[in-house]
Amino acid sequence: MAMETISLLDDPTQSSMRTDLNWYEIYNTRLLRTDRDVRSRTDPFQRRLQKYLRAFRYWRLSRNHQDFRETGGPSQTHLKWSYQDTIVITEVVGRIIAVMIMGAFFVIPLVVLPHKSMGIQVSTATLLIVTFSLTVTLMLKASNLEMMVVAAAYAAVLTTFIANMSLPTPAS
To answer: Which residue ranges does UniProt annotate as crossing the membrane (predicted)?
Structure first.
């Protein structure tokens, strides 16, 4: 179990109280999110997406700050930025990306498998099952049992696709 954290960069109220920190220190400072429940699992894909979103925000704000400094604009305490809840953004974007990837794993066999011989269908299905399992393993934090269940379910779906495609059509 772990608590959610945010970057000090994501909270303009807290960040404006710390005038002694530079942008890099603000970016690296983490705050504990007490308004969120304790999470039982950490999704590695969403955590990586959150890390990249924070890095992009840091890059954008530090670039704007450097532009202000070069033009003689407002100081760091007068810079305005909006609140960004990176946890919610990464949950939504992560789920959308996961749905698109997993949807592709069901559409590709429907397009590819009907036009092949039985040996090519079986080898393509095997390749898709292994690729699907690796994708799920890399995107989600799942136990070994859950991975076996996911792979078995996907294999059952592909087997059904192959079996229905290879059945002879009744003569009319």
So the answer is: 92-112, 118-140, 147-167
Cβ–Cβ < 8 Å for 102, 116: no
CA angle 147, 152, 155 (to 5 degrees): 125
The CA distance from 63 to 55, in Å, is: 12
Please indicate, yes or no, if residue 89 is contained in any of the structural domains.
no
Q: Each residue's pLDDT tens digit in the chain (172 positions)?
A: 566 677 777 766 766 777 787 777 777 777 776 666 666 566 778 888 888 888 888 888 777 766 555 555 444 444 555 556 777 788 888 889 888 988 898 888 888 877 768 888 888 888 999 999 888 888 887 788 888 998 999 999 888 888 877 655 565 5
Shared-domain flag, residues 71 and 141 = no
79 shares a domain with 103: no
